[in-house]
Amino acid sequence: MTHAPAVVVRDLHVRFGDVEAVAGVDLTAEAGQATALLGRNGAGKSTTMKVLAGVVPPTAGEVTVAGHDAATDALGVKRAVGYCPDVGGLVPRATPWEHLQLSARLRRMPDWEDRGRDLLERFELGDVAHRVVGGFSHGMSRRLSVVLAALHEPAVLLLDEPFDGVDPLGVDATLEVVADARARGACVLLSTHLRDLALEACGEAVVLRGGNRVAAMQAGELTGEAYRALLD
Length: 232
Ligand SMILES: Nc1ncnc2c1ncn2[C@@H]1O[C@H](COP(=O)(O)OP(=O)(O)OP(=O)(O)O)[C@@H](O)[C@H]1O
Known about the structure:
The chain has helices spanning about 45-55, 75-80, 95-105, 115-120, 140-150, 170-185, 195-200, 225-230; strands at about 5-15, 20-30, 35-40, 60-65, 70, 80-85, 155-160, 185-190, 205-210, 210-220. The protein is α/β, with parallel strands linked by helices. It has a domain at about 5-90 and about 155-230: P-loop containing nucleotide triphosphate hydrolases (Rossmann fold). Helix 5 (about 140-150) packs parallel to helix 6. The structure holds adenosine-5'-triphosphate. Adenosine-5'-triphosphate binds near residues 41, 43, 44, 46 and 47.
């Protein structure tokens, strides 16, 4: 029996006014796989992630996420994914626990509390579970964003710059979340500038440049030299 890949992107274009943020990206990712999205500032990684999360519509091209067409079924896409955006997404006056409550309610999750508590502990946010996030450091906010993306064990986990400003324990907790997601058969896409961590977290790598995919390979093949050559 054949199965459809968890994520299919064909000739994706995203335009914001005069800016073509994504200019013909192709990407396929399977269940149980983790794929790193790499590329210089402005290469189109976050915009591609936003389309995969169902929060920005494709201007042209074909995008299917867990069987849902991003152009016509953005709600279906949102239900299938867990998304850690590159910035924002948190309510400054709410606590981590309230963020979890809201997320669980929106997704009609029964019995989420034990998993929520466990994730907060793994990301060392247990002690601040009832403190408003407005005063959180950048790294603490990033860690909470990963927790929120992972809470409902989504079919497709999208982590946009999850390591940005995060300390080594937070990095380890994030790597563990990626490994757990893969082990239960989820598809993971992770954008980062950190080649070493991309290699550690992911088996596949895709490099974007100027809104185009310039390479797709096994992560192990992405040597420092190869990566630098692809960025130029
Ligand atoms: N809402 C928007 N309006 C106008 N231009 C945008 C918008 N979002 C992104 N862009 C532009 O699209 C291009 C790609 O941006 P994107 O954020 O996807 O890149 P990135 O690879 O994630 O970069 P970084 O590594 O700096 O986060 C950039 O030129 C950016 O300025």
